[in-house]
User: What shape does this take?
Amino acid sequence: MRYEMVVGLETHVELNTKSKIFCSCGGHSAAREPNDCVCPACCGMPGMLPVVNKRVVELAVTAGLMLNCEISRYTTFDKKNYYYPDLPCSYQITQLNHPICTNGCVTLKTPSGERGIHIKQIHMEEDAGKLVHVGKASYIDFNRTSVPLIEIVTQPDFRSAEEVLVYLNKLKSMFRSGGISECEEGAMRCDVNISVRPEGSAELGVRTEIKNMASFESIERAIRYEVQRHIDAIEFETEELVQETRRFDDASGKTFAMRDKETAADYRYFPDANLMPIVIDDEWLEKIRAEMPAAIDEKADAYREAGISEKEIDMLIHNHNASELLDGVAAFGCDAKNAAGWILTDCAGILRKNGKLLGDLEIGAEELAAIMKMVDEGKVNRMSGRKILSAVIETGVDPVAYCKEHGLDAKVDTSEIERVMDVVFSENGKAVEDYKNGKVKAKQALFGACMRALKNTADTALIRELLDDKLSKC
Ligand code: ZN
Ligand code: MN
Assistant: This one.
């Protein structure tokens, strides 16, 4: 018999905010030492009151708009009660009754065609702390406590592990380019709900949930393992399937039972009376929508239209910093395709040389546009342009001032160039002779000698023209 998997995903994404969700502590990415981003509020001291971080609401709404959700105009927080040492209040503030976004959908382009995945809801919640085990001792680090998360819950619409990966990569690209989350490893964690049924059956099989996986690779391996375990259990009665929560062990590649499946009732959810309901009115929603970066597909289409290659589009979509710079440079009137080359090849190369990545790029759109214009207008040649770029990236100097100071302006004074050429010709008599005797390559040697004599600053097209002219007269 053939089986099909039925998979739903709950994805926790850490939001890119300056502070935590209910207090003013910096996010845990700001932390240097354990427990240095903590305060009485996020440590659950008696009597402290939570205050909602407005930015969290805005980023959650932005995520909802990107995933075509309905945005709740009235949204509330609930307490989810459970005891665990990394949870100082013994409850997590989350959303059960009125989540901020519902009923969304996302279209995936998979190798086997387009697939629509329904989004059940997106809710806001706080992260828990971290337990650190060293030898026989256990420590608690509260830096991550109350770091803002959104949890994106899909309907059980996935039918293959490939679809899950396409979905996760799409979320990652969207959230990065939208400034919602950097989605680095650990900032995106998934719970996967899995069941298996005979192909064509409308009934759902017994469902298990694999908790808290942080790498896409683990998620894929876990799904493949768990699906096979279900099929074996049904087909060969190797074991009895029960509804339960499991964990995936990376080393063995297997899943293990953690606990019986809990239901909402186990958590004694109740509304958090310390937090007022949030009302999102038309004005606020419109403001968030207006500030929303172009959705990823639209953005890719615009880049395609500008003639940027698919490989470059892929790099831009995955790099918020780079695409933002490109859009900025284009706004200064520079050609987008040309800018893509400057950013993805030249800037990336200079950064690589300094052991950095594109995400570390700090040049302003105005500076890069100024350099591109100097080159386009023939004021400096491409090589000097790169030299200026390198200085701007490495030391933050002003491009125009640097160009002047280092005499990088392209020499356009033809009489001076001709004088230099005379000297080059007299010093390279052999090359001139060779060229006249039909050795075309000798021209390149003369060109190189002229460029060196002009300290590589001359307009290359002009040199080639004058050189051809001079050789034709020899
Ligand atoms: Zn705090
Ligand atoms: Mn959650």
The longest helix spans residues 216-236. The chain has a mean pLDDT of 91. DSSP finds 15 helices and 16 strands in the chain. Residues 20, 23, 25, 38-39, 41-42, 146 surround zinc ion (ligand 1) (CB under 6 Å).
